Structures are given as C-alpha cells and as structure tokens.
Amino acid sequence: MIEIPATLVAQMQEHAFVWYPGECCGLLFARHGGDVATRVLPMENLQDKLHALDPVEHPRTSRNGFQLNAKKMQDAVRTAEAAGDRLLAIFHSHIDCAAYFSQEDKDMAAPPPERRPVDQGLWHVVMECWPEGMRAANAFRWDGSEFALHPLPGFARAQPLPRAKR
For the chain, N or C: smaller number of CB within 10 Å? Predict the structure, then answer.
C-alpha cells in the first residue's frame, strides 16, 4: 500500500489549492523497493496551453483535465533513479467532483487499444477539491485486471477562498 507522510500530503494540498479551479498534477518519488513517498514534485498542468493552441485536438481545459510535460517528467525520473529513487505515483486533482479514476485517467495509464498499463507498479493518486477545500483522496494501482481503489487517509482539509494565484 502506498504511504504518503503528512508533510508531503500538505505539499500536494498546497499545489492543488494554487491550481484550483484547475486540476493540479505532479509526481511522487520513493526509495527503490518501497511504497513510502519521500518527495513531491509539483508540475505545471499544460492542459490550458494545449487547449489554446488547438482546441479541436485538446478539447479539455485544466478544469477537467491535466497534461504533464513528458520531457520534464522523464528528466525528473532519470534524476531520481540516479539518486537511488524511483517514480512512485502520478498525482492530480479533480475539481468539484469525487476522487475517482476517470476513463481519461485510465486511458492515460493504460492506453487503448491494448489497455495494458504503462507501468503496472505505478500508483495514481486523485485528490477531491471543492471551493471549501479538499475532501478526500484515493490511490489506484493495477491489480492484474483493473485499477483497484485504495482510500488514502489524511487528505481532508478546509481551505477557504480566496485561492493563491498561480
């Protein structure tokens, strides 16, 4: 089971609050061989920029989607691996709805038509953000046939408006 220490939960929450009312995204790292997060890497959600460039190809905005910078993610993973760490999870927030693993999330984690996970050991953390703050978070990981849900404790947190500007 994935374990995210409270200090890292707070960093993830702050990143989500800065991006609200858009989805945030980022990476969690751990030491090789373990599922205890040791570091958070907040990342920019490129979804609005992609939508502005080509709304037909990228119909979603950050309100209902996220897109990581693939090169920055690869660079971060390489740097972590050189230091003896590994990518543990990709995290993102859902805006004004539950912390579920959407079809879009599944498609990114296990692209069609094969529907095989890019990384079967990778966790996917989804945080539930509302105007009054964060209500919950869930983790999902491939169990051999589907992305199984694992509730995460310690994520509920009130954060009244106004939000920070990104």
Answer: N
